[in-house]
């Protein structure tokens, strides 16, 4: 069985072959509920500037995307790496590929200079996975632009997590989070 390789690819450097394989990975999970995957506006969410990809043989078996953005939290501005598109193929679940991808995401954010925190929202069922990867749950109101392009406000309590990159957990300000755009 070939080894799983992790690589980081800038969005504009994805090859046509990468796009076909990523579409296959995402459509296997989401096609019935959300339609075809669009790399420039995945399911209406914010696109990714960097793709952290797990490959086994010629196939893409895992993905995490992220993009840098300045957001508002309370009265402060914070540079974050917004994370989304976390997906592992059925065949690779339970093989620690997700943990390896999240570790590579953290490392790539540290190398990006100026990213204070990673940031993501998720389903309740996967909070423990992200916590095992070093992410910390926060409680805050979140403002964003929804998948149809309208403003959205979510009350505190939904799963939001941060990862200290150049900051410390204690540095995260208190207050509402304004993503200033679409969530990832």
Write the layout of secondary structure elements.
Layout: E1 4-10, H1 16-34, E2 50-56, E3 59-73, E4 76-88, H2 97-111, E5 117-121, H3 127-132, E6 136-138, E7 142-145, E8 151-154, E9 160-164, E10 177-182
Parallel strand pairs: 4-5, 7-10
Antiparallel strand pairs: 1-2, 2-3, 3-4, 3-10, 5-9, 6-9, 7-8
Describe the structure in your own words:
- This protein has 184 residues and is of the alpha+beta class.
- The protein is built from 3 helices and 10 strands.
- It has helices at residues 16-34, 97-111, 127-132, and strands at residues 4-10, 50-56, 59-73, 76-88, 117-121, 136-138, 142-145, 151-154, 160-164, 177-182.
- Strands 1, 2, 3, 4, 5, 6, 7, 8, 9 and 10 form a 10-stranded mixed beta sheet that branches.
- The radius of gyration is 16 Å and the shape is globular.
- The termini are far apart.
In a nutshell, what does this entry contain?
The protein has helices spanning 16-34, 97-111, 127-132, and strands spanning 4-10, 50-56, 59-73, 76-88, 117-121, 136-138, 142-145, 151-154, 160-164, 177-182. The chain is of the alpha+beta class and 184 residues long. The chain starts with a strand and ends with a strand.
- Largest sheet report: 10 strands, mixed
Q: Flag low-confidence runs.
A: none
Strand content: 35-45%
Bulk shape: globular
C-alpha termini separation: 33 Å
Mean pLDDT: 96
Radius of gyration: 16 Å
SSE class: alpha+beta
Q: Features of this protein?
A:
10-stranded mixed beta sheet, 22% helix, 38% strand
